[in-house]
Amino acid sequence: MTPTALVTGASRGLGGALTDALVRRGWRVVADARDADRLATAVAALPRPDLVTAVPGDVAGPAHRAALAAAVGDRLDLLVANASDLGPTPLPRLADLPVAAFERVLAVNTVAPLALLQLVLPALERAGGRVLLVSSDAAVEAYPGWGGYGASKAALDQLAAVLAVELPALRIHAVDPGDMATDMHRAADPDATGLPDPRSVVPALLQLVDGDLPSGRYRAADLTVGAEAAR
Fold first, then answer.
1. Helix/strand/coil for 52
2. Which pTM value belongs to this model?
3. Per-residue model confidence as pLDDT tens digits over 47-87
4. pLDDT greater than 90 at residue 185
5. Peptide linkage before 47 cis (omega within 30 of 0)
6. What distances in angstroms separate CA 18 from CA 81, 166, 203, one per listed residue?
7. Which residues are tagged catalytic?
8. Whether the predicted pLDDT of 230 surpasses 50
9. Are 152 and 135 in contact (CB under 8 A)?
10. Where are the domains of the chain?
């Protein structure tokens, strides 16, 4: 049976790189992104675009989440909640962050992953599936300007921890991919240079997909180091 993944934020960055890797393995992928044209272009460039069901839309919207769940079908082997909202840039102090902007960040980064999981939970349980909730080091470190985004990811970490206790038949992972050369990071820090390509993080994520690691929070850097040490 062909395994199925649902990947949000799949048109670029880490989501795009992971989608490419899964398709190369023969997975069927339901791919989401806000920009329909960008998503269509990304899917067309994949080695097997026929394996991808593109569902463009805003993951914060209930109707769009329902469309994603419908596209998944009866079984889901992997849910990857990767879509994120950084908030306004240049990054303001937390004391100056508009409340409406913070609510939007929470809606995309925290509420949407839980709401989407609730919709696809029966399909995940049928497959004994896995969930990857993409977190950040900003969830555990106090970086100036990153307060809203970091708070949303800290809440996501806690959701992952509680879901892992409540759903022991599934693997629930929060994963910190580390700094990467992505559009989001460039928006936050236009002067950042020398950051790793998101594709370099994919092997760490695949360890969580393939392996037997218990539910929990992981840093991609630690997973990569562990894989190299085991060679």
1. strand
2. 0.94
3. 999 999 999 999 999 999 999 999 999 999 999 999 999 99
4. no
5. no
6. 12, 27, 9
7. 149
8. no
9. no
10. 4-230
Q: Residue 29 gets which letter from DSSP?
A: E
H or E, element range at 225? helix 220-230
Query: pLDDT for 90-126, tens place per residue?
Result: 999 999 999 999 999 999 999 999 999 999 999 999 9
CA torsion, ordered 50, 117, 124, 221, to nearest 10 deg:
80
How many Cβ atoms sit within 10 Å of the Cβ of residue 14? 26
What letter represents residue 76's amino acid? L
Q: Could you confirm whether domain 4-230 is CATH 3.10.129.10?
A: no
Neighbour-count burial of 153, counting CB atoms closer than 10 A to its CB (0-12 exposed, 13-18 middle, 19+ buried): buried
**216-219 β-sheet, strand order:** 52-54, 28-31, 4-7, 78-81, 130-134, 171-176, 216-219
Length of the chain: 231
